[in-house]
Amino acid sequence: MIRFRSWTGVAFAAVHALAFFALYVDYLRRSGTWFADLQLSLAALPFTLLMRTLNGGSYAFGGDMTGRVIAAGVFGSALAYLLGLIVETIVRLLAGLLARTRA
């Protein structure tokens, strides 16, 4: 049975969500200036690249697009959760192998 619960994944997703929220607040503070949403756009790059691929080559993202910002934050948190799940699974596998070789 494959397990999909991971405390490491939850921690990674929470850190990503907090960082993304901080970048959005930073954008709101600096909106109207040149490159105000640069950091937010870079943090949303995986989401933007996926949507560009699915959309056929063109997809706009900016800090003033609230729906897309929320979707990018959720997508990035899901990726961070999956990364944490993979890391935790590998560590558990290696710890189990190490415990078996010592016994």
Topology:
Elements: H1 7-30, H2 38-43, H3 45-55, H4 66-102
Helix pairs in contact: 1-4, 3-4
Description of the structure:
The protein is an all-alpha fold and 103 residues long. It has one domain. The chain has 4 helices and no strands. The protein has helices at 7-30, 38-43, 45-55, 66-102. The radius of gyration is 18 Å and the shape is elongated. The two termini are 25 Å apart. The mean pLDDT is 93.
Compact description:
The protein has 103 residues and is an all-alpha fold. Helix content is 76%, strand content 0%.
> Per DSSP, what share of the residues sits in E-state strands of 2 or more residues?
under 5%
Quaternary class? single chain
Major sheet characteristics: none
Distance between the termini: 25 Å
Low-confidence stretches: none
Order of helices and strands: HHHH
Mean pLDDT: 93
Percent helix range: over 70%
Key features of this structure:
103 residues, mainly alpha, elongated
